[in-house]
Amino acid sequence: MGNSNAADRVIQDLRGLVAVADPGTRLPSVRELTTRHQASPVTVAEAIRQLVADGLIEARPGKGTFVAAPPHQRRAPDLSWQTVALGPRLPGEDELQALLALPPAGAIPLSGGYLDADLQPAAALGAALTRAARQPASWQRGPTEGRADLRAWFAREAGTGLRADDMVICPGGQAALSTALRALTAPGDALLVESPTYLGALAAARAAGLRVVPVPVDADGVLPDQLAAAFARTGARLFYCQPLYANPHGATLAGHRRAQVAAAVRDAGAFLIEDDYARDLTVDGEAPPPLAADDPDGHVVYLRSLTKSAAPGLRVAAIGARGPAGARLRSARLLDDFFVAGPLQQATLEFVTAPAWARHRRALRTALHTRREALLAALRRHLPALIPAAIPRGGLHLWTRLPDGTDDVALAAAAAADGVVVFPGRPWYAAEPPAPHLRLTYAAAPPDLMDEAVRRLARTLHRGTSR
Question: Taking the CA of residue 456 as centre, how many other CA atoms within 13 Å lie in the half-sphere pointing to its CB?
Fold first, then answer.
């Protein structure tokens, strides 16, 4: 009680002084206020902190406290110099931020790259992390390339082509991809990508100073003859692709093309980054093995993340390659952040080697099937022209063709105003898009909201085309 009364006395005293003094006037020192109010230095300091927070007092270290200028008299900060110092922004930053933005309240998300909270194994992950946090060894430094047992698990998942020593643990797939681009290329090099391709890959490539060269795809994946021609024309030594349920277009590289793509990469003396982000997102049938499983000479750089198939907060991925390429990947990761947090690695290993992982994958397969079918049913009712010609057998998205002449970016903005969040197709292309598209995600909203979401989208589209 005494301290509270003393603090109040100091505050009222200082408020009175501030009220009649000019801005910049020096106020009594802590020692003077301590003597005047019979208060402790701690009490006086707390009173001063409160008035500083209220904007009445300005504390100048080593000089004392002074009456602050009223807000309307304070000079607004001039940050314009930063425009010159920083130079132009990298292309694609705005689109990537929009892709990762949380949907506004009341909007139905048909966009996003992560599972809806209802599909995430939060309880199992929380229990695993709690147990890991209690183990003192998990807080120690550990190998810079990651735990050997976790690397071994990722290597087994990739097939027989990679060993634990070839892998390095990364804090998410985007970090792994950025590492690979930086380790295997130099600024100005050409990077071949599918067209369209993952937006995050385009952003990472541009940030690394690479020339991005698109290669056409169809329902069976990248066109091998076009890939070979792009290698010959550009002299590129790196091709980034997602052979399984590619984001955004959903195609899986057909069996008859796998050997042709491998031959194009081999003949160019190049590497192929296989982004196997959707290994656990199969909805129909069984997924083919990774390309890395049949790569005797080390052309495939294999990337596998658990974030898409588990939870956004499980920022654990692995990237691996054989030979000197693997050594460069490990060195590049060391420069970035030394190593991934030990408790997170321990929790991840416990989760993926426990029965909870198999249960989650089975439940996720069923849930994704239900949501995909709900979205397709809604499209049949309200927008049948947008149903894709080929339905992906896995992944999280549908790639829908819009009517010619539609501005997909403007449509996405108008749809957001109407309460449904979708993502335009244009940013997924490294060059001019051949036609307007939308990427519709079926994993971000529950199935009972799909009909209302597509109804809102249809209303927006019809309003735009009727003008």
Answer: 20
pLDDT, the chain, mean: 89
Residue at 391: amino acid letter: I
The model's pLDDT over 318-328, given as tens digits with 9 standing for 90+, comes to 999 998 998 88
Beta-bridge partner residues of 194: 215
Q: How far does CA 145 lie from the centroid of its chain? A: 22
Q: What are 385-438's pLDDT values in tens digits? A: 999 999 999 999 999 999 999 999 999 999 999 999 999 999 999 999 999 999
The structure tokens 């021609």 sit at: 229
CB 336 within 8 A of CB 177: no
Residues pairing with 320 in the sheet: 167, 302
Nearest to 196 by CA among 271, 132, 249: 249
Amino acid at 31: R
- Confirm if 336 and 411 have CB atoms less than 8 A apart: no
Q: How many CB atoms lie within 10 A of CB 63?
A: 9
Q: Which conformational region is residue 60 in: left (phi greater than 0), alpha (psi within -120 to 50 degrees), or beta? A: beta
- Helical residues (DSSP H) of 268-384, grouped into ranges: 324-337, 342-352, 355-382
268 closest CA partner among 316, 243, 234, 305? 234
Residue-wise pLDDT for 251-261, tens only, equals: 999 999 999 99
Tell which residue, 343, 280, 288, 286, has the closest CA to residue 313: 343
Predicted pLDDT at 228: 97
Please state the rounded mean pLDDT for residues 18-46.
86
Q: Is 13 exposed, middle or buried (0-12, 13-18, 19+ CB in 10 A)?
A: middle
- pLDDT average, residue stretch 49-64: 85
What's the pTM value of the predicted model, to 2 decimals?
0.81
